[in-house]
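Support reply, case 0932

Customer input (verbatim):
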Amino acid sequence: MMETDGNAESCKRLPQKKYFRQRAHSNPTADHIVDYPVKPESMNWKDFYPLHSDKEVEFLDIGCGYGGLLVTLSPMYPETLMLGFEIRVKVSDYVINRIEALRDNNQNQYQNIACIRTNAMKYLPNYFKKGQLKKVFFLFPDPHFKKSKHKWRIINETILAEYAFITAEGGLVYTITDVEELHEWMVKHFTEHPLFVRVADEELKQDPIISVIGDCSEEGKKVTRNNGSKFIAVFRRIPDSVQPS
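Our regenerated output:
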């Protein structure tokens, strides 16, 4: 399937996933060779968002996979800059190529999304200032079932402080998984942190993002095909001076 701007001769083919397949698991504690800024002010975001160089990234998809969430949210929030972090080389290459093709085939669209290959568990504060992000997403993260590998989970007690640092007061963190044990793990760690509170299910009914995060990613579509369960939990970053009751 190819999205176009109406000029068939100028259409650029979207990359095919079969050429960018890579194993799902990656050790985030390993020494991956990646470029990263010394500090947020060192980033040249103009290279990633040529038409929006005066804005800051506000949405972050950590472990963005093949970019389904970014592509889905881009037209929903056309004035908001969104970024995907992906640690796997081939997968991040796919997303970068996909965004490039979508931009070429759809004039002035998809200019607000980008992807960077990096390790969020190591370099997150190098990219974002305190309270910069309004929404952070964790869609079907690797469950790392073995107890010895729980420290590899993208949500754990040691990294929650960094998520609290980069998330704006009132900002939201979205989580979804098909593994109930991992869902309970993420809920436990976020609710035990003093700067996050869980958003009530009733409030989530008003959030348009909730209706798309379940099936926008490749993993989400796979769960749907297999009639699997999906567990969603959203957490709000509360002000530093406020403690939850």
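We compared this against your earlier run and they match. Two observations from our side: Helices lie at 68-76, 89-105, 120-127, 160-166, 180-192, 201-204, 218-225. The CA atoms of residues 17 and 94 lie 7 Å apart. Please reopen the case if you see a mismatch on your end.
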